[in-house]
Amino acid sequence: PPNIVVVNSGARASAAASATAIAIANVRTGDTIIRQNMIVDSGASAMVNSSAFAVTEASVSTETVARERDLLIQAICVDTSGNPHPASQTFGGRDVAQDYRGEIYRCMSGTRMRYTVGETSRDCATGDALWYENGQVECRPQIARRPCNERSLLRRFGSGDKLVRVRDTETRAARSETTFNGAMTMDGGVGQSVY
Q: Per residue in 53-71, pLDDT tens?
């Protein structure tokens, strides 16, 4: 019948549920990670317990450092049999001016140069001279000169060391990670307390 409400006074209702959620992410530059364990129980009241969580932030930074150093250069010439010979200095004196641009050592025809700058040794190709320009030392093809030029240079300046100012750059990468840990408990429902 209309407008009549039937009440069943003996009826009962109850519900229960539980769930667990875990969230994990991989760290990349600039990412934030949240790890959370959550348990939800439901009955007459609702209750959420989050026992622990961690937030991790990671980043990678790069730094480029330019530096100038005074380094000693030693050079020899190596023939096809592997025998060493003195390299010819192209000018006298030990110090190479910072604004100098040109050959600092040469080798006789048929030999190749082996030079050491600081703690690093390198070989040039046959017919290359050691060149200095703008704070850099490198192998370059020899400038054409008259025959026996290298022997004349050896008689005039001898073999010897050169002191050069070298500019180079170094790039470094640093990774940093910060983790924040915490814990919380929430309890709620009708007439319940919150912590």
A: 677 777 888 888 888 889 9
Other Cβ atoms less than 10 A from the Cβ of 106: the count is 24
| Alpha-carbon span 95 to 1, nearest angstrom | 115
Cα dihedral 101, 107, 108, 111 sign = negative
| pTM check: above 0.70 | no
Q: Which residue has the tokens 């100098």?
A: 100
Tell me the three state secondary structure of residue 83. coil
Give the C-alpha separation, 142 to 156, whole Å.
19
Residue 30 has a pLDDT of 47
Rg over alpha carbons for the chain, rounded to the nearest Å, is: 39
Beta bridge partners of 20: 39
Cα separation of 87 and 120, whole Å? 17
The Cα-based distances of 115 to 84, 94, 139, 170, 181 in angstroms read: 12, 15, 10, 22, 56
CB atoms inside a 10 Å sphere around CB 107? 26
In the three-class reduction of DSSP (H, G, I as helix; E, B as strand; rest coil), residue 158 is classed as coil
